[in-house]
Records
---
Amino acid sequence: MLPAKNIFSYRKYWAERFGVAPFLPMSRAEMEALGWDSCDIILVTGDAYVDHPSFGMAIIGRLLEAQGFRVGIIAQPDWTSVEDFQRLGKPNLFFGVTAGNMDSMVNRYTSDRKIRRNDAYTPNDEGGKRPDRAVIVYTQRCREAYRDTPVIIGGIEASLRRIAHYDYWSEKVRRSILLDAKADLLLYGNAERALVEVAHRVAKGEHPKDIQDLRGTAFMRDAVPGGFVELDSTELDTPGKVDPHPDPYAMVTPSTCETAEQAPDAPPPVKVVHLHREIPRDHPREMTVVRLPSFEQVKSDPVLYAHASRLLHLETNPGNARALVQRHGDKEVWLNPPPIPLTTPEMDALFDLPYARAPHPAYGDARIPAWEMIRFSVNIMRGCFGGCTFCSITEHEGRIIQNRSEESIIREIEEIRDKVEGFTGVISDLGGPTANMYRIACKDEKIEQSCRRLSCVYPEICKNLNTDHSALIHLYRRARQVPGVKKVLIASGLRYDLAVESPEYVKELVTHHVGGYLKIAPEHTEQGPLSHMMKPGMGSYDRFKALFDKFSKEAGKEQYLIPYFIAAHPGTTDEDMMNLALWLKRNGFRADQVQAFLPGPMALATAMYHTGRNPLKNVRRKGAEIVQSPKGLRQRRLHKGLPALPRPGELAAFARGPGEHGPRRSHRQRQAPPGAAFPARRHGRNRRRRQAGGPQTPPPEIPHPAHAPGAVGPGTALPRRRGGADQRQNDDRINRIFQD
């Protein structure tokens, strides 16, 4: 990978003399106890402050402290006034703002847009302690508190909204969060490298707005500066010569698109634009910028939105990515290339910082569920090269795996054993974004730097990927030998298509590291949705299950696989969901772990959901693949509910389709036997009688459907509706499936 300055090699700031804080201060009293008169940097977060390396603010805060800065934390402030944002006084350098470990909208709303009652990152699991679009709200309050203090935003919420993006909750394309938050600088991805550089340069007198040469940053510009070669990609591909990629390992397949037919209502013809233009051979790649379609274009044209999404994801490899620029009105949103991944020594030093490994004492005995979940777990790596289209891990952490050394991991296990209260000898997880990508990388560094594939394992495992699991096997064995450790479990998601390449690893995992159940995520059984997810087919699952059962039997253990599935994903049809339900029935599963697809910002699957186009392929205005997405609350609920509990009554409604379900009925009406009579609703009269203390109209007596004559049950044919031959065939087909 490209060289980069070690983040721990900077000359430390003068405030290093104050030493290390037991916890980063959250109050003036704590600052005074440390001998501070002010904070150099104040971090504002939507999560409770837990001083543990699994929490972003703890990592960032301790890293800045290691650089010599005095760092304060404002956790979950009251955003309805400015007072909480003045709690620690004015920072000498800048505010750092994040929504927390999760996007604030994902954290607060379900995939059906219902408000969640709880929040795992809040004391006592209490919901409602952070605002919607927390980064924007917090930044505005910081400005109100101290108008002339710079504000730098980061974290997953800011990262995934760095350009124009589709917002599922408002059902519209929103502009870059930089404009809405009015921040001086945005740091995207794992931002340690950029943040350390920014902090030292601001300490020397630079303003964050003037720092425009760092990887992993996004900011506003008035115009493209001189010296850059601009590649105009604001229009769609059209027929024409496609220049060869400058590197044969780039894995870009040249292709052409068909000519769009002219029609009275068709959009204006697009200009011929080559994505790979001839540029001067001596022109450095870092002085090239790709122009994306503007915010105004992608907002009004879904096809151009899909095109922009494809371009963005093709420019994510730090080894060959170019800068991107997108016009927003009279301003330019500029994205520098992604940050260089941290080296193993840097990862070790980052995780060896003096974390208290506990929630801040201000929370007292309050229970923080997210902390309870990870208190005995160890993160061994970062990144994921799976490239699943519905997931944001790859977009945020990158495809190149950043590994810790065995020694650093063993030290953390020993620290958990010695410092964390309540440790019983069980390490709950030894993993990361994916359980089994530790020390797995491209065989050749040059190929890795040149590659432009979106996934190393789809549609099949790349021949250049080293799939050797021996380093992970050795780590497991060392971890089990640590004195005081009775059991090491693996709870992170397992990439089973990768695991089957190493039967020895599967044997080690199944024999020693499964606590009775192993959760894996096939996500679906049908090729249609799987191809739009970039997930492997069920053949890999079958191979893994055979190995899992074999090694469980050899170990004399009764262990089970628990599959996870996604419903209502783009590319999923009603037929696909019925086939999934049939597979579950045939294999004896009742899939309780089914979640409906949630279109998060910047994900490729979200682009499919919004536009109906497939950005995994060249985007065309005509002749391109149209991606159907289950939309509307009723259809999404049916897709989610079908695999979980196939009931014949639900299947009939499912087969009739979302537009033919008939009038809306109450739960009692749906459960009643055919022919049951219901009186007209009289809510108003009953309400008035309740208020007056008079008698109320009793509800009708409805027998339980399981005991009623003619109740639907196993072996009972579904009643046919008057809907023509097609409807009768649908009902008959569903009956046959679930009576087999």
---
Amino acid sequence: MASTSVAVAKTAAGPAVKVHPPASPFAALLRRSRFATFDPKIRQTYSTPPSHAARGSWGLKRPLALRRRNAFISLPAPFEHRAQFIEWTRAEDEVRFIRRFEEMQVRPRMTPKTPWSKTVGLKNSTNWLIDSEFAHRYEGPEAEEPDAFLLQEEAQKAQEARSTLQKKTSVDASLEEYGNAGQGNYGHRRALKSSTSYKKVSPNIDAMLPHEFDAYVRRLRHLRPKFQEYLRSHVVEEKRNLQKLQQNLDTLDRESTRDPTKKLDASNVRSIIEDTRKDALHPSTNLYQLAQMPDVSFHRRFIEDHTESQFADNTNSNGVVIEQRPHQVGGLLYSHPSLLHSQIFSTPQPGIILQNAHDITAPTHTVFIASFGGLSPTIAEQHRGDKTPLLNHNSTEGVKRENIKRSVAKMRLYPGTVSLERPPTSVAEDASLTGGLEDVKLYSQAMVAGSQVMFSQSNPYKPGTMEYVALQPVTGKGERGSGGGMAPTSSGTTPLMTPITRKMNRSGALSYPGTVNVRTSREESLTRWRSKSWAKNVANKSGGAGAGASLSVGKGNSQGKGKDAGEGKGKGSEEGARSGAGAGEENGQQPDLFKTLRTLI
């Protein structure tokens, strides 16, 4: 009984089970999200704890020959081959590249008009909306995908508000109806973007296998009655549009008799009517005649509308289709840091400027190619600071060992310049065609920390801190800021003194780096310098060939050295000058006055 209680006590007092963090952002997303998926054919990267790595245990049926720490391997979808062997490759380069890119805290973008951007589609290329205090409290579906109906509704509400404001000429004296809207209901609603037709999606027939394409064609044959109905509705819609255009044309013709400037608008509407009638579809047109017409895209519009209706239909749970949206940058970075976040919180990392190059878009500008974080970014002339390239093609010196230190510098990526042109090939029929990082094509720009751009920040403190809030804007040259007695900082600005900061400044809790009252100390030093009899201390014509200088500070103790008189000490400037030997005019030597002045100031 006693042993049981002791065992229970030991179990209760034992260390709690530690929950290990996810190995990567993708693993956390796949674990928490119900909609995040991935192709099983993509090779996944795995790691193992150091204690298991020493034994070659990677969670597979048999140990591997890789037995070192901080190692990573990539495995295909079937971990073990039919021939009972495991195919694995090293993945340290890929893992370290992703980790280095995450440390840079820069959001990559997708290069437009590239094969990858066409595959992803323009619907997925929209920027994320950043929540702020200026956004509306309750965001509806218009925050991500605005619809034309919502746009009309917002325009109608704005028109009604303007008309109500115009009618209401006087304000209630009681003001009881003001200030009761509630928390978060005073901000202006974010402007909506109009939805365009080119953002429609359709199945990608180029990525289908032969049996998938045959099944897709069979489904299209069943949609033939709906396609005919779509054509009839299109004819009716075109007829309505022609009637509206004709009414607008009649109105413009009547107004052109009084206003000659309306004739140009009438001619434009008349040309639109002619083009619409030329492309109009006759009600008696059958599918065979429609197939013979050149440059007709009714079938494509119908497929896009049908696919869009499947994604938007939430009433029928059996026919719900989740729209597939590939990641914009192929999983390079799952977070979305803003440009301001990258500008403030990105930490400079070491890099090296390799060589100079010429910009194709601007031949007169000189750029430099660097090696930074596994990338080869370009650095503009104004962003390289005082660093020189390691290799200069215009000289015959070549690469020297002493030039390496002048080429290495702390760098960081320029926010908003990282764009992905081609992601890695992860899935292919032949496994040898998956090149990994060798297939990636990234364009980026970097800048050296401490260059001209870095000095353009007027407030060097971290946003949100008391030093950041208390700093006044930069004043002009010669002006003194009203800092409540505080001296200007090294950046030329004066801290703004509030009751809180003034109290903390008195107690010594608030300190500004580099704060020194330069003007006061300089005036005191010059006054002290003028009050002393400088000629008696530094000019002694009776001295020998020795050089000396005496200075009385505080109580007037001074020291002097010379060849003839040796060393002597005395009180007062005169005694110090007598005991020492000054710089004689016969030798033409002058005392180092500027060095002494710099010591005082």
---
Amino acid sequence: MALDEESINGPRDSTVDVEKLGRQRPEVFKSIWAELGFGISVFSSMLLAEFFVSGFHVILPPLAKELDIPQASQTWPSSVFSLVTGAMLLPMGRLGDMYGGYLVFNGGLLWFFIWALVAGFSKNYIMLIFCRALQGLGPAAYLPGGVMLMGKIYRPGPRKNLIFALYGAFAPLGFFLGILIGGLSAEFLTWRWYFLDRHHHLCSRHCNLAARCAL
């Protein structure tokens, strides 16, 4: 009978240990601030992906007027970003498997930053479409890279569930923030400000992750 109780208590203890580990901070983070920095970096990457989809539709009318975009071509600047992102998700995910999520995530953010910055200085609609297409490669890289990092760092459990829930919650937040900022840019400033204003935030998040999570 004693043996039966031990055989029963053993799995229970193991279950408790697994649940406890699932609630603990991962060892890669030396402090809660390091984990917070990582979370802000990854969550904000999702926010930015949606930000540059929704907000662009708002600034398109004044942008099309200034750059003299033909009516038949006005869908390209807004759709080419999502087209390239969707087409390149699987190849970029494969690169993440080969070289690691950290490299792909940070490389995608840097690439995204560069071409969003160049897009803000577009002189004609051909240049804008080209920049938007290349900008779309950024989310195609850093979105699967961010998921790989979270999946690698966190054990299965409540803490991991919370991280992924927050990651998903930042998608609609970025969507509505893009509409808000795009509307303010188009109404009171210029469409170029929509591209240029976000870059000091993006650069700081990129450096924050690189410094705090050396995987």
---
Amino acid sequence: MGCCNSASGAEGGEFLNSKLKDSVENGPLKKFTYYLALKSSELKGNFNIDLLTFKNSENDSVNLLGLCFIFGRLDIVKYLIEIYSASFLSMEAHFHKHATSALHIICEHNYIEMMEYYVPIYLNLKPSLTSTPHRNLRETINLGDEPDDKISDLSDLSSQSEEYITPIQSACIHGHISIIKFALNYASSLSKVPPEIDIHYIEKSTGYNCALYACKSANYSMIKFLHLICKADFKILNNNKENAIQVMAAEARHKNLVEFYQCLVYLVEKVQIDIKYNYEETIVLLEYVKAVDYFLSKLEILGIKGDKKKVEEEILVKAPYKKEESKFDTDNQFVLSDIFNDLKNNDTSTIKGSEGNGSFSDDGTIIIKEINI
């Protein structure tokens, strides 16, 4: 991605645009107002604050007001609204082209003062918006340290998989408890909480709520806050019929989740996730020896004796397995339920579960990511 280096055609002038961008990035308000006055004078009667845009090498753009949101410049936002009557609708239209919104930017970067300022404005603005913002979920949750990465990152969003997240879910993924706390308090005063700030909202495309996203990130502080303070529901299943532990274990297979074990213990002992549910799948997904031993010990207390190696060997014996594609995951996947049903019916020693323990769904279909065993 290239740097922002030009404005839209009618409002050219690379030098002033560069100075404006620099002053938004790290300059005082006085410096910004100086260069904006020069820009206004340069364009005379043709100056329109909402049409002043900044482009990168891929020809993607964000307007000046949006640029201020990206860099968290609430002081400049207020100035543009008061002096130039800048349009939030125009800004959101630019963000919409990149499958994001101002609220997503705020929640992702933990701009708490901007959150407090913009949420009431957004709720009044929402009826005029063409669609509700749902951002594509990215694999990485860290933007680069370079300022231009914050802008060029916008162009990456439209190419992501169709796994959508709401702004408040983005805050959960990034571990921003202050944003969650504000949303919780603000929502308490509303008769109907919009999905954008609803901690309990379940995204239809994935079946995820904030609780499951916190588990996917294995963020212990966030999990504990959502459980104790927000009373979030950790016991739902996502659209792949995976519970909170399975979601976290699947993510840990390709990411280093530092607080994984701590989160696992909390989910089992404090949240009391039903560990009997598709426990064979959980055994297969778990990789850390300490986590596997802990999970098996908890199963044994319930009268279920399991052995990870034997479970995996049984799966290999039942191969080949049926492969399916998921709309929300580009990885190969396979269906374990048929294999596990056979194991339950023919088991003589390795896995002993009681009938009706809720380990399998009614239709017998559980889809999880393909793994190497």
